[in-house]
Amino acid sequence: MITADGITVAYGRHRVLDGVSLSVARGETVGLRGPSGAGKSTLLRVLALLHRPVAGTVSIDGTAITGIRYAVPPAVRTRIGVLFQSPRAAADPRLSLADLIAEPLRVARLPRATVTGRVAELADVVGLTADLLIRRPHAVSDGQLQRACLARAFAHTPDYLLCDEATTMLDAATQALIAAVITDYQQRHNAGVLIVTHDPALMTRWADRCLDLGDLAAVDP
Ligand SMILES: Nc1ncnc2c1ncn2[C@@H]1O[C@H](COP(=O)(O)OP(=O)(O)OP(=O)(O)O)[C@@H](O)[C@H]1O
After folding, report:
1. Ligand 1, atom 11: nearest CA belongs to which residue?
2. Segment 102-159, tens digit of pLDDT
3. 147 and 211 share a domain?
4. Ligand 1 center to 36 CA (angstroms)
């Protein structure tokens, strides 16, 4: 289980989250909603170990994680995958989709042949064909690029997948495809999934339980 306990975040003097707690268990899909600017993305970034809270703890299976980003041991960091709203903001425009998917594998210094094989496997999981893998982001659609970002998020087979409005800018068919790929991954790996979305229909269809950010704080921000 991944848990945020008593998370408080401030940007300068602006306190965005105040003592917020939530948990996502392996195998479940939790939906997180709340008004724009309430701090959903901020909470997701804290859970993804990308943002250090002023107070509070993120833990996995009861073990508190100290530090963020590369200060977290790879074996812990790779248990969490993240998918953001805008694949264009999340992708290096100089990389081919194959290199984009390979990024986390190269960071882990896996042998070249292992990386090549794993990229092919991951591309297959998200339905990207070989002709798309050699293209750079400017030459593919948002949906195709988001699929590459999803493959990248799956690279180390994370136990938890955090999705921040990950299908918002996509058409209905691509949205359904991404949701189906994530659900399939979740079932195969018993992954816990957290989805932030403004789309009530998607939330109802996808999440096992829905949480309102405003209800999670010990004290209202
Ligand atoms: N890096 C930052 N520096 C300063 N303020 C920030 C920063 N990131 C977010 N904020 C502010 O923190 C508040 C919460 O932002 P956040 O993106 O977490 O909300 P959200 O609930 O995800 O909103 P939305 O639904 O519109 O995406 C907002 O008022 C935002 O302006």
Report:
1. 37
2. 999 998 899 999 999 999 999 999 999 999 999 999 999 999 999 999 999 999 999 9
3. no
4. 8
Query: Which tens digits make up the pLDDT trace of 29-74?
Result: 999 999 999 999 999 999 999 999 999 999 999 999 988 998 899 9
Distance 125 CA to ligand 1 centre (A): 32
Strand 80-83 to 63-65 pairing: unpaired
Which value does ipTM take for this structure?
Answer: 0.95
- Coil, helix or strand for 198? coil
Query: What is the layout of strands, in order, in the sheet containing 192-196?
Result: 80-83, 160-164, 192-196, 29-33, 209-212
CATH number of domain containing 191: 3.40.50.300
CA of 30 to the centre of ligand 1 (A): 20
Closest of 103, 104, 16, 5 to residue 47, by C-alpha: 5
Domain enclosing residue 116, as ranges: 91-152
Say which amino acid occupies 27: G
Among 95, 215, 75, 85, CA closest to 159: 75
- Whole-number Å distance between alpha carbons of 156 and 81: 8
